[in-house]
Amino acid sequence: GQQVMQIPQYQHVQEGEDFTTYCNSSTTLSNIQWYKQRPGGHPVFLIQLVKSGEVKKQKRLTFQFGEAKKNSSLHITATQTTDVGTYFCAGPGTSYDKVIFGPGTSLSVIP
Amino acid sequence: NAGVTQTPKFRVLKTGQSMTLLCAQDMNHEYMYWYRQDPGMGLRLIHYSVGEGTTAKGEVPDGYNVSRLKKQNFLLGLESAAPSQTSVYFCASSSGGQGFYEQYFGPGTRLTVT
Fold first, then answer.
1. From A77, A84, A100, B6, which residue has the greatest number of CB atoms within 10 Å?
2. Contacts of B104 in chain A (CB under 8 A)
3. Could you report the per-residue pLDDT of A24-78, keeping only the tens digit for each?
């Protein structure tokens, strides 16, 4: 069946360092979404990418959709303690209206 | 707007007991979803609904039932709870489907089955 994978599973960085998480799908995606979940909280939508090779920025966060639309990345420049949380990518399932979430990358930022 | 609300926030069940989790949204969304979240496994879709009166199975539907009698409410039932159903349950809603629309999540229900 369709799979969405993310690496790494965990990342510990010193405050100010950069961070990148990668999302890979076993199938071509029409679009990909990214969500952030703070510890003890619920997932919150960050962004959606639709076009092949698309790059979007939100302040220190840069999102990229691969040319083949099977992978995506999230890069955070100069991490801050407010970036702590788990980042999930999500894509449409092969069955109509389903959404498949990746397992997430948990980011810890050491002050 | 309250967005998406879930009740209860916490629950402890004994094996074999039943319970219903309630999700309510005030955004007039057509689509609603139930997920479970376990450590290291992300969010897994249990059941979803594309409109009032409709339900469909997700990735991990066994042991759960759902109902969408009113557009704003989506109920998740456990008829005979098992320890494997210990998890955090999230409800979500969206204005459209096919994975093209932002999902709004509720605060979650932490369920422990002993």
1. A100
2. 45
3. 999 999 999 999 999 999 999 999 999 999 999 999 999 999 999 999 999 999 9
Contact A98 B99 (CB under 8 A): yes
Residue with the bigger pLDDT between A43 and A2: it is A43
- Nearest CB among B40, B42, B98 relative to A96 is that of B98
Please state, in angstroms and rounded to a whole number, the distance separating the CA atoms of residues A12 and B106: 28
CB count within 10 Å of CB A107 equals 21
Return the residue of B nearest to A96 by Cα.
B98
> How much of chain B exceeds pLDDT 70, in percent?
100
Residue B43: strand pairing partners? B37
Q: Are A102 and A29 in contact (CB under 8 A)?
A: no
SS3 A76: strand
Buried b / exposed e across B36-46, counting CB within 10 Å, b at 16+? Answer: bbeeeebbbbb
- Which pLDDT band holds residue B52 (cuts at 50, 70, 90)? very high
Structure tokens at A84: 């702590």
